[in-house]
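Morning!

This is the sequence you dropped in the shared folder:
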Amino acid sequence: MGDDGPDRQATFGSDGSLETDTTPAATGENDFGEQKAENETDGGYSRYAVSSLLQKAVRRSDEEVAAWAAWELARSGYAWNLWDRLNLYVVEDLRAGSEVALTIERYEELATERWEPDEWRGRLCAVHGALAAARAQSTRESSNADAYFGAVAEERAAARERGEEPEYDFPGDELEPGGEYDVALDGHTGEGARLGRETRFFKTRGARVGPEGEDEQSARWQRIAMGLDDDVAYSAAELDRAVERVDPEDPWTEPDGENNSTGLGDGRDDSTTPDGESDDSAARNDAAGQSGSLSDFSE
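The structure's back. Tokens below.
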């Protein structure tokens, strides 16, 4: 199987030129008994126009038009074009995370590896693939993001050349200790390692999730594992902080209301709770009778 798909083959046109976009199944007569022109479908349409219509139908969630366009391409010998397009639409026109990507991949596999793509079962797969794409949530978010980030990159470079601040900057611009994205600079990075931000910083800041936060069972596991850690003594407040959900309105500010540029290293401390019990003991009491383990920081 080549890069162009299982059905794309090289043929020669009437003038002797090499045509790589037409398969043997795409030649012959159209529905009107006329010899098909290059890149013509059985219905007498340009395959380029039908392919474009398919994408616009997917983007606008028009199921009937999408289903017809896919059927027309498949029955006309352009199944390789159809499946290539549908897989492109998954990343260009559908919302990220959509399971339709796997659905389309399976339909393509059935149509091209188990059956013939232009036979009845292959055509059904084509229709199913198009309907699945048309029914998924449409968005141009990936294309818009690519264009946006690319334009900002050019603006940043031009502004530097002018010796000015850019009108627009990347969302992660403040990627420095004490900046908005301070929490990202944990021990997995050079800056974080130099600041001594190892397990304590990672567990109480870098590993927090949101906005839903950890569920009850996951939070329990995390508290027990941290409480039984022999290398780092976590206070009760740190255990609470570690499982506190990230604020959906302000995901980068930590619960103490600031971004910390200090080490928060792994040295054990002798802090005590108001009743005189050490924080280490309090954390371990929370885990009494339980079992757990803390994975290495190298995760």
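Headline: Residues 54 and 66 are 5 Å apart (CA to CA).

More detail when I'm at my desk.
O.
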